[in-house]
């Protein structure tokens, strides 16, 4: 199955709303908040006044950027009109933040005009990361920095014991909703390949041990498995109930590996 994040609007309004909510839920996780706070701190240089996020989705990270840099003008670019509509609604009243519909490889931004670029969980959903990274390099001013954050989806797990049925849903989610599950292992090479100097690279463990942060992995995969005729509605309901039982009992165990990389555009 093709990764629906490659064409979010084609996936429909229900998909957009569900994943807009899921992105907000994920970003409220303390580990994700720490990851974003760390890379935003590393972007903090003198006179940061213009920041771009490529692939902003429904704006969960964009709002963090705008709060961290209140005097900067922050623009979230996103190819999905549906996500942009959601992002604008959820950021109502944030004066230094705006959203525009644009392809990440063709931004309506002047060359050498941006102090920082953020690309958060985007590259794992594209077939070729180079056009997006080259565009980030183009709009960055000399000395400007890019922060890339993504998940190593190949390492994601729900397993608490051998042949855990919830873990099969983690693997199904990756196969159905991720284009490149191994993007993290390529990040440093991708950044240096477009001419950026890699200043920082860090791995982060995200553990879910009782909170429903990965519930969308269960809900969306079982929904699609029912639609494909692979399982019945009764098994779908039972798997969701099992997830919720473990959450209530604080026995749920989920694991994701994230990475952040900071690249700098060389001075002329």
How does this model look, in words?
With 268 residues, this protein is of the alpha/beta class. It has a domain at 4-152 and 179-206 and 257-264: Vaccinia Virus protein VP39 (Rossmann fold), CATH 3.40.50.150. Helices cover 42% and strands 24% of the residues. It is built from ten helices and seven strands. The chain has helices at residues 8-11, 13-28, 30-43, 60-68, 81-90, 130-139, 165-177, 187-193, 215-227, 233-249, and strands at 50-54, 73-78, 97-101, 114-120, 140-157, 197-208, 254-264. The chain has a seven-stranded mixed beta sheet. Helix 2 (13-28) packs across helix 5, helix 7 (165-177) packs across helix 9 and helix 9 packs antiparallel against helix 10 (233-249). The radius of gyration is 19 Å and the shape is globular. The mean pLDDT is 94.
Keywords:
268 residues; single chain; 42% helix; alpha/beta; globular; Rossmann fold
